[in-house]
Amino acid sequence: MSSHRYCVIMCGGVGSRFWPYSREDCPKQFIDFLGTGRSLLQMSYDRILPIVPKENIVVVTNARYAGLIREQLPDLEPGNILLEPARRNTAPCIAWAAYHIHALDPEASMIVTPSDHLITGESVFEDCVRRGFGFVESRDALLTLGITPTRPDTGYGYIQIGGPVEPGILKVKTFTEKPGLELAKVFLESGEFFWNAGIFLWKASAIIDALRKHDSDLTALFDTGLADFGTPSEADFIARNFESCPANSIDYAVMEKADNVYVECADFAWSDLGTWSSLYDNSPKTEGTNVTRDARVLAYEAEGNMVAVPSGKLVVIDGLSDYIVADTGDVLLICPKSQEQRIRQMVTDVRLKYGDDAL
Amino acid sequence: MSSHRYCVIMCGGVGSRFWPYSREDCPKQFIDFLGTGRSLLQMSYDRILPIVPKENIVVVTNARYAGLIREQLPDLEPGNILLEPARRNTAPCIAWAAYHIHALDPEASMIVTPSDHLITGESVFEDCVRRGFGFVESRDALLTLGITPTRPDTGYGYIQIGGPVEPGILKVKTFTEKPGLELAKVFLESGEFFWNAGIFLWKASAIIDALRKHDSDLTALFDTGLADFGTPSEADFIARNFESCPANSIDYAVMEKADNVYVECADFAWSDLGTWSSLYDNSPKTEGTNVTRDARVLAYEAEGNMVAVPSGKLVVIDGLSDYIVADTGDVLLICPKSQEQRIRQMVTDVRLKYGDDAL
Q1: Chain B: which residues have CB within 8 Å of chain A?
Q2: Does B354 sit within 8 Å of A316, measured CB to CB?
Q3: pTM of the prediction?
Q4: pLDDT in tens, A168-187
Q5: Distances in Å between the alpha carbon of B233 and those of B57, B208, B225, B227, B239?
């Protein structure tokens, strides 16, 4: 029995806040970040496989990562890898995937997921996604997964909920940007807000309709390729047109504007692993509350550090607390966790001083 | 014209205060510590070569370093490498070398030098050593080189001078242990004290006589091998007897007791490179007063750090001042410079926790 359920794994990010572990030639999603033996991309793929047959899993990534995808997901047919010739954020990425899948299967529904998030509690995830598929298959709805917040995190976007529609699914009232700490505390206490996990479910036809309504320039471009999607000429069409798409996120392009947007309350543990501190928060602690992964660490008056070094490396730290110590072999970063927002600037500074090769 | 001048390079130390750069299987003296392309041992050898012919240069080291010596000093004849079967400090080391050289050449004079010190100003060094050889060749004197102190260093031993004997050479009044800071300041201001560089000159016969007088147990043992030294059976004699020598320094055994001890004022720049801080003090500084050697370093609010990493490694440090950051590839040490006396304990702790293989 063939399935009309598809999955789009977005895999084109650079992950610069995780430098030096995340590098332009091997970003975060391709790294075995948690020491499990599987990269974040592979874990995302493994997680969806019980729900969506592998023939229906599509990975969208930048063309330069084609080799990494083939290496890490050898079971995936080459036709299931969509290679973007340029980085244009999530709206053009999702639009392409939707046109591609809709051309193959006009009845398709799809889940769109990042490749570099952490999710634990796979069976809860599966139940949640199956319920979500059921919901969007019966109506023209755009469904996003909302995570019950556990702290006033200022690094996430929030979703304000409206009225319930069916068990676990509610209307979305508003999407909000990353709030300040005081506002985040209000959000948390109100019980009306969820974290926006950036995981979406919808019918391919529904998201294309929504894009036509709210981002008609983008669909006007893609509509000129309707004869190409799902055929051997699709790659040529993309090569000629994709770069002219304006960079835009699906949140701005559609989700914040459409009125058929719903949120499903997700109970699995989730982190976007956006920063070293979030990795610290999501990792088991060893002596002195340090996160040491599989390093051998001796800590003297050293607490709260996020230590990431090549497997098996011996680290002796003395008189250092609440720092990031990230060593990739060719790059060593030592930086207070409180200064991690500087890392993007550091990457820029390194490029200016030592050139692209240093990155 | 054959020379009666010999050199003994002592090369058996472990250099544990420089861990993780200095390792038991490759101590400090075998490392290109200053990034010059030559190890400290090679620099010591190069420095003496204009004064002593290579046939007369003897390296004494622990047996486990035989391969390193052959690799780093390929011009040295195997017969010029004395391999100690055990570590017994400098007195047994120097006694063996003196008996060995005296057996080959009863008229021999010799300079004894560590292999892991830093000396700059080679021509000043050469003049100084030639003057010293001239002095000890004309009398039964034990001559030590004294460095004019430039700061109240509490890490060095001091020599108090007595009356002048000839230009630049004075009688030694006393040797003193490492002083406290207040005493070191008094020493510095008095003008009566020199740093003890641990570089000695004497006739082979003179040091053997002095050992017979002040450490007769040691010479009683070595005298049983008088028929072996300088012959093919010397190695067997050492293998049978060396381990039974008590560990003792030449300072305790002879220099502090003998009354024919003199000091030559040495004007070359010298450091025993005993600690990371002394390497910091003796190294050129880059931005933010950090010592970065040949690393590529970006420093944000980071000053006074001693950074030693594999050649060409990129280091980004933020919010770190007056630390040692020493990365050997398999070991990373981050430690305040002020805590460097802890390093020996750290090495012990590493051995206890992770075993010898981790060192």
Answers
A1: 20, 296, 298, 300, 309, 312-320, 323, 325, 327, 329-336, 339, 342, 346, 349-350, 353-354, 358
A2: no
A3: 0.81
A4: 999 999 999 889 999 999 99
A5: 20, 20, 9, 9, 10
